[in-house]
Amino acid sequence: MAEQGYQIGMVGLGVMGRNLLLNMADHGFSGMGYDTDQSKVQLLRHEAGERRIEGAASLPEFMGGLSSPRAIMMLVPAGPPVDAVIRALMPHLEPGDLLIDGGNSYFKDTELRAATLAERGVQFLGVGISGGENGARHGASLMPGGAREAYERVRPILEAVAARVPVVPSGLAVAAASTDAEAGLSPNGAAHDEAELCVAYMGPGGAGHYVKMVHNGIEYALMELIAESYDIMSRALGLTDEELEAVYRRWNEGELNSYLIEITANIFGKVDERTGKRLVDVILDQAGQKGTGKWTSQSAMDLGVPAPTVDAAVSMRDLSALKDEREQAAQILHGPQRAYRGERPRVLHQLHNALYVGMASAYAQGLALLRAASQSFHYDLKLEEVARIWRGGCIIRSAMLEPIRAAYSAQPDLPNLLLDQQLGWEVMARQPDLRAIIRSTVGLGISIPGLSAALAYFDGYRSAWLPANLIQAQRDYFGAHTYERIDEKGVFHTHWSED
Ligand code: 6PG
Prior knowledge:
This protein has helices at 15-26, 38-48, 59-65, 80-89, 107-118, 132-138, 148-161, 207-236, 241-252, 259-269, 292-303, 308-321, 323-332, 344-377, 383-389, 401-410, 421-444, 449-461, 468-479, and strands at 8-11, 31-34, 53-55, 71-74, 98-101, 123-130, 141-146, 164-166, 195-197. With 499 residues, the chain is α/β, with parallel strands linked by helices. The protein folds into 3 domains: 8-163, 3-Layer(aba) Sandwich (Rossmann fold); 210-461, N-(1-d-carboxylethyl)-l-norvaline Dehydrogenase, domain 2 (Orthogonal Bundle), CATH 1.10.1040; 467-499, Up-down Bundle (Single alpha-helices involved in coiled-coils or other helix-helix interfaces), CATH 1.20.5.320. It starts with 7 loop residues before the first strand and ends in a 20-residue tail after the last helix. 6-phosphogluconic acid binds at residues 104, 130-132, 216, 219, 288-290, 292-293, 394-395.
């Protein structure tokens, strides 16, 4: 009986779990779902229709209904809930079973869980899944990590639910595609033309969740940059929501084409049913976070990799949360009162280019971090593949990822995207516009740490000399930390003062 059971189990029937199961079933895979909340099980049964999907009323029914050896995906919030599910499943698991964590788990937790389960002969995969509800239902970007044999077991299922993007003839940019329809695919997923899947084996251990964490760090950075562009257009240029919608829509048709720019345009178009105002204007200016951006910054600092735009994005979410304090401070601390006097079309053009540099910088920081992590943790990441699977389905998909993919295809060990001839040139060509935007915005007293960090990163990275010699001298002065000289090898210490 068990051999004819359902091919995949899903624990956690929230929006992501249910939609992924439906997506799997649409591609011919049978699935059984379980949730401690029986109303979600009922909902799954209702949504399943004629598909080969079943909702289990109990854990024994769920475990007994799956074909053996079992493949079970968990889609529950990161942290203690994942451990709680593993504890509940443990008595029912058998050697050879495979557990898949499809949530946003911390990569070190994933490595620990894999080691614990391996002692019981149970395989474990940490799969980063991006794309939200729509991605889960119609094609997500998937970042699987763990033992390769384990990945091979579920590869057909993961490939079936992955987003597809058209193969790009070399040298051409591609618009960020999310769904099968956008990617030129028929509803059953068969390609009219050649298509690439947005899934690839990332590496051992926590590699999949590490890549997803950095994806989210980049996501935070891009969102902060776009928010800053909104602030500039709204407060400095006085654009209305209608005008903002039009600008983002226009930008989405060009080289800034991306999911986040697209939804930003849609957001400015959305009217609040209660007030008749644009919904965005009645949303409280306090951003939440579940931690993946912070983890990215923490890991970057642990590895000694600069990621200042991600850091700025996390800090600004923290600052946004200090709403009461900010309201008090606004009464006490004053800045420039000037109005912006630049010509709108010229400033909008500059802002477009500033955003391009900011976005490129965010990807550069994230991918440089992945390169360092790959070396430190022996993930053996293929950055071309990472860029390729981010081109569709995920939150950070953008047209820019095609030249990024091409850069790593030409030079797999590229230390930094800014060193790619094409991208470096594009950034250099637009830097005067970023400088102009920063100059005028700083003069107006508008906070733009994401854009400023992008420029500082660019200027610092391209600087063969930095004032760190002074920092070394200071360290040696107060703490005898020693320094190196430019004219002689070795380690030196100086008695800097007579006191
Ligand atoms: C994705 C998103 C998704 C989730 C973020 C939100 O790739 O689909 O990244 O995983 O929306 O984790 O993160 P915050 O709540 O921290 O903003």
